Amino acid sequence: MSEAGHKARGTIVKVPDATPGLVVVEGQQKQFTLERIWKSPIAPAANMTVDIDLDVNGSIAGMTVVDRQQMTSEHMRQLGGVAQERGKEAADLAKKGVGELAARMGTVALASAVLVWIAWFFFPAAGIDTGGGKISYTFWKLLAVDFKDLESLATGGTHGFFSLLGLLAIAAPFAAPFVRATWSRYLNAAPLVYIVLGLIIMWSKEHSAFKEIAQNAGINPFSWSGMIIVLLIAAAVLAYQAVQEPSGGLASGSALSGGSRGSAT
User: Fold this and answer.
1) Domain annotation covers residue 256
2) Is the separation of the CB atoms in 25 and 79 below 8 Å?
């Protein structure tokens, strides 16, 4: 191939017989013959992908079949490149979104709200000693347990309306920065209020359910996990944002406005 030529990828649409074959390359159909052109040990076939050497005039100077393994490798690289690019775009969007949310909520409030969600769904909150082992419950799973129903204790039960209120409570802090009202900051206290109320209700129910067992056996099979403290602390830190004074932008604006009216008079 001439130094001024180049290599291109094409697809055979017609195999040479009594007439020349046809290959689509660079959007054009070009004729080719086997003699001095076809370089591969296997015969050409329709729809076969080939690498084509083109001379300075654009004529076919050589043609070889593309190895299937090579094609697969190229496709994987292309897919990997696309996935990496899309992943980078998604990461940039997520980073931007988290940054904007942190700017609205505050870093401490956002971190506390996220920790509440993690502790709510993943940290052990309590457990029951069955004698042959211990069943552990997250706070979310505990909300669905009916302590007087053995099947519920084993499977976790079914969540109801009170559990739905809990989801709204832990979602409330994320909505607070978007509510244009002076009371919106109190939404940060919703998780703590709900968690304390939920603990009181659950303590009352488990005490009623295991009271006789505790009296007869001398020990209560139900016990709280120390990890529940993480949930309470995170919710308490979040609730602290509710009692803090809002940023002074609005107050300063009102003062300046009042000062301007005073000067005008």
Assistant:
1) no
2) no
Beta strands in the chain (DSSP E): 6-14, 21-25, 28-32, 49-54, 60-65, 124-129, 134-138, 222-224
Question: Is there a single domain that holds both residue 158 and residue 223?
Answer: yes
Q: How far apart are the first and last CA of the chain?
A: 91
Q: Count how many domains the chain has.
A: 3
For the chain, state the CA radius of gyration: 35
Q: Are residues 86 and 21 in the same domain?
A: no
Return d(Cα 45, Cα 17) in angstroms, integer: 11
Question: Please, how many CA atoms are within 13 Å of residue 216, restricted to the half-sphere of its CB?
Answer: 5
pLDDT tens digits along 74-124: 677 777 777 777 777 777 766 777 788 888 888 899 999 999 999 999 999
Segments of the chain with pLDDT less than 50: 1-2, 248-265
